[in-house]
Design goal:
With 229 residues, this protein is of the alpha+beta class. The protein has 2 domains: 69 residues, no CATH class; 132 residues, 2-Layer Sandwich (Beta-Lactamase). It is 47% helix and 13% strand.
């Protein structure tokens, strides 16, 4: 009677109940009938359900979330496999290039057909190894402000066209990637840039990952390096 009067005068709060249940892991095993007797509001708004049913619904919701996350991971992995294969094919093509003209054509074709790029431009401000390449479009002098900006990049730039580039690319393009090119033995000063432009505004986004763009930049840098001083 004394314990009952004490409980009435000192109601048990939610925290005490929570602590008690944590300290008694076998409580519901010993009082299994409570699982069906205690009713809670349904999380889906369909009246009241038992504690056991509520737990089942919670587990099903968690499973659905995990299934969605797993499906997204699988889709991303499949997309990465496809992109890796395309980068591999590009590397094989670059190894087999015979001259600078073929190299530029290969880059343009691969970027358009395999990487959804509308226009690609190769600009090199280091002097060509062969004087015959001096008049090639890739060695056409570029605004110093652009080359200076590219040399400040420590990774490919993605997003809208920087104002500094003016009319360097077609006006109808909506998203861009600027990939600095470095000598394999010197990553401190870029000798050129590969510029990619797409009509799709979502193709190159400011917050996108740049791992594959960096790989492409390293491959093309190695392929171009023999043609510059």
């Amino acid at each position: 009677m004394q314990d009952e009067n004490y409980t009435q005068n000192h109601p048990v709060n939610a925290e005490q109940v929570s602590q008690f249940l944590r300290s008694q892991p076998n409580f519901f095993e010993q009082h299994a009938n409570l699982l069906t007797e205690i009713h809670l509001p349904s999380p889906h708004g369909n009246g009241a359900i038992s504690l056991a049913e509520r737990q089942q619904l919670a587990q099903r919701d968690k499973i659905r979330v995990l299934d969605a996350m797993l499906a997204q991971l699988i889709e991303s992995a499949q997309e990465n496999d496809v992109t890796s294969s395309k980068v591999h094919e590009l590397s094989i093509g670059l190894i087999g290039n015979q001259n600078f003209a073929d190299l530029q054509q290969l880059i343009a074709q691969k970027m358009q057909l395999d990487f959804a790029v509308t226009q690609s431009l190769l600009h090199i401000w280091s002097a060509p190894h062969n004087i015959a390449l001096a008049h090639d479009a890739a060695f056409t002098p570029i605004d110093a402000a652009i080359s200076d900006w590219v040399m400040t990049l420590n990774q490919p730039f993605c997003g809208e066209k920087p104002a500094i580039t003016n009319d360097l690319l077609a006006p109808h393009l909506q998203s861009f990637a600027f990939i600095p090119l470095y000598r394999p033995s010197d990553k401190s000063h870029a000798f050129g840039v590969l510029i990619l432009g797409a009509e799709d505004a979502q193709r190159f986004q400011a917050n996108m990952g740049t791992m594959y763009l960096q790989l492409i930049g390293e491959l093309i840098s190695a392929a171009v390096a023999p043609y510059i001083e």
